[in-house]
Amino acid sequence: MQDGVYVVNKDFDIEYVNPVLTKDFGDYEGKKCYKYFHNLDEVCPWCKNDNIQKGHSVHWEWYSDKNGKTYDLLDTPIYNADGTISKLEIFRDITENKLIEEKLKFSQEYFQSIFDVTPNIMITTNGEEIERVNSAMLDFFGFKTVDDFKSKYSCICDFFIEGDDWVQPDMDGTRWLDYILKNQDKLHKVSMLKDKKQYHFIVWAKLLKVDKEHRSVVVFTDISELEKISERLEFATNGTNDGLWDWDLLTNEVYYSPKWKEILGYRDEELQNIFETWETRVHPDDIVNMSKNIKLSHNNPKINFKHTFRLQHKDGHWVWILVRAKTIFNEEGKAVRMAGFHTDISEQKELEFKLRASQLEFDLFMHFIPAKILIKEQDGTVIYSNDAANSFFNKESLVGKKTENLLPPKEAKNTNKFDSNVLKYGKYEELSEFYNQNGEKVIIRTLGFKIEMKESLQIGLVLLDITQSYLDKEELKNKEEIMIAQSRHAAMGEMISMIAHQWRQPISVIAMDANNILADIELDMIDEEQLKNGSQDIIKQTQELSKTIDDFRNFFRPGRVSEELLVQDILQEALGVIGKSLSNNNIEVILELGEAQKVKTYSRELMQVLINIIKNAKEVLLENDIEDKKISIYIKKQDENLTITICDNGGGVKEENMEKIFDPYFTTKGEKNGTGLGLYMSRTIVEKHLEGSLSVFNDDEGACFKITIPHALKDKEKEK
Q1: Which end of the chain is more exposed for a tag (fewer CB within 10 A), N or C?
Q2: What's the pLDDT tens digit per position in 514-566?
Q3: Contact 554, 712 (CB under 8 A)
Q4: What residues are paired with 201 via a beta bridge?
Q5: Is the whole model's pTM more than 0.85, yes or no?
Q6: Helix, strand, or coil here: 321?
C-alpha cells in the first residue's frame, strides 16, 4: 500500500500509525499528533479535529517541514464503541506530483488531471463504459488490455457488491459516478468481489473538463491491505527487479535468484550456485577493490556495504551493478552469512558518462568563444566565469567573488549601476575605456542580459575586447565592414542569452530525472519501467543540449567563403538558433519553402540577415502585443534569382518610416533596445556581399521583407 494511515483520538493521542508513516516520521508511541508530525507543543492552528468531532470528512493538503514532502490528506471520523469519535487520516505522498506539475505546466488539462491523482487502480469512465485504465487495474482484474476487459464487462461497477455504506451501481436512481461527483465532501467506499475474494476501496473521482464526453478520472485505493501488511511485503519482495543473492560463509554455498542470473543474460539453469560464478565475472579493474570491501564488511558489523562494480554479461559486454548487502554475525561475532541485492544501473552509468561529455563540450565551447563570459547573482556574486574572464581579471577563478573584490571602488560602483540597468531593461550594453598594467589603453564592450531562474534573477555578462578594431576603425576604408563586425558582436550577446535560456529547461529536467533515479535507489524502490522512462528522458535532453551547441557553433563559424548548399538548409540553421526564442514567445512560424534550391553564396552572412529580420519580426509582435503571433517565410525560385520573403502580422511599417527603415542608426525600439544597425547592415550584406537586394512592403496583416539573391555569386569573391 502506497498511502500512509494513522488514527488519533479526540485528545490528540495517536492510536495507530502504519509502516509507511513510521518510515518517514519514526516511532509514535506515547506522542501527541501535533508533536509527532509538526514538532509542536500545543494543538496546531490548522487542526481539523473540530470538523471530525462534528462528523465531517475533510480533504486537504499539507507540506511537512520534517521530511520536505507534500501530502494529500483525507480525514474522516471513526465512531468508536464507547461513543467517542476518532479521526482516520490517509496520507498520500504527492511530492512527486508537485514536481511533475511544474515540469508539465504547459501540458493539456487532461494529462494534468490524471497526474493530479496519484493512482492505485485508476480509470477514466463516464460511469457506464470504461475508456482508459492503468496497469494496476489490469493486473488486479487479470487482463492484458482494456479491450480484453471490455469484451467481458462494460463497467467496473459490475464487480460492486452490496454492503452498508458501500457505493452501488445505482444510488437511488443516480449512477454511481454521478453520485460521487455530486458528493465530493463525503468519503466514498466500494466493495468488489474478485476470484471469490472481497476487496475494500476508497474512491475518488475528478471530472475531466476537456470535452463534452462527461468523462472522469476515478481512483480506487485498496484499504483492505491494511489488514494484510505481511502479504504485501512478501509480494513486494517477490516482485522486485533486483537480483537476490545469499552466501553461506561457513559452507561457501551461494544462492543466486533467477533475476540475478537474468541480469547477466542467463537462464536459471545455466549458472551454478557457487562463489566462482560471481568471482570469475567481475571486471579485472574492480575485483581487487570489491574483494577488499567484502573482507572489511566481514570484520566490521557496522559497515554499510554498498558499492558499484561491473559484471560480464553472457554476450561479453559489461553490466554496471549497484550492490547492497548485509553481513550476519553469530553470537561470537563471527561472520556467518552475507546476503544482498544486485541492481542493473548500466543505463544510469551511460547517462552519467554522456552528461560529463556534454558538460565538457559546453566548457570547451565557453573556453574557445572569443569573449569573456560571466554569470552573477543579483548581489554581484560571480557563479560562473570562463577561462577568458579569469585570465582578464588575472584570477584563477572568479566564482564566489563580488564586484568589489575585482574592481576599484569607482569602477565597482559603475559596474553595479550597469547590473541594475540589466535587471531593469532585460538587456543593456556600454563601452568602457581604461589602461591596463602595461599602461596600454583597453576598450571593452560589455553586453548584459537578464536570466530569469525559478526563484531568482541572474545577470549574464559578455565582455568583448574591441580595442584593436576600435583604434583601427579610422584606417578602414570600408565603413560597412566595421558595422558588420559590430553587428556580429551584438548578435553574440543575444546568442549567449539564447544558449542560457535553451539549456535551462533540459538541465532542470535532467537533474530532476537523475535525482528521482538516485532517490529510488536509496529507498530500494527501483522500478524497471520508471528507470527506463527516466533514462530515456535524460537521453532526449542530452541530445537537445548537444543540438543546441551544434546550432550556435555553426553560427559562429569563422571565415567568409562562398559555399554551394540548399537555401532551405541555411534557413533551418537560422531557425535552429532563434527558433526556441520564437516558440517560447508563442510565435507560430509558417514555412512555404517550395522545391529544394541550391545557391552559391556566403551562407553565414545570409544566415545573419535571416536572423536579423526574424528577430525584428519577433520584437514587433511582442511590442504590439499581437494575440495570434505569426511569422511566415516563403522561398521562391526565379530565372536568375531566388527570393526569400519574411512576413509578420504585427501591423506593418508606418508610411513615414518606409523611406528611413534601412538608414543607419534609425530605430523605433528606443535607445536601450536597438542600435538602428540591424536592417542597415542586412541591406549592406545583401547588396554588397550577396549581390542581391533587400526591400520592404506592407501586406494586409503586417510588414514583409523580401530578399533577392542570385543562384550563384560572380567569380570575383571577396575573402573575409
Answers
A1: C
A2: 777 776 777 777 677 777 776 776 776 676 566 656 655 555 555 567 888 89
A3: no
A4: 190, 222
A5: no
A6: strand
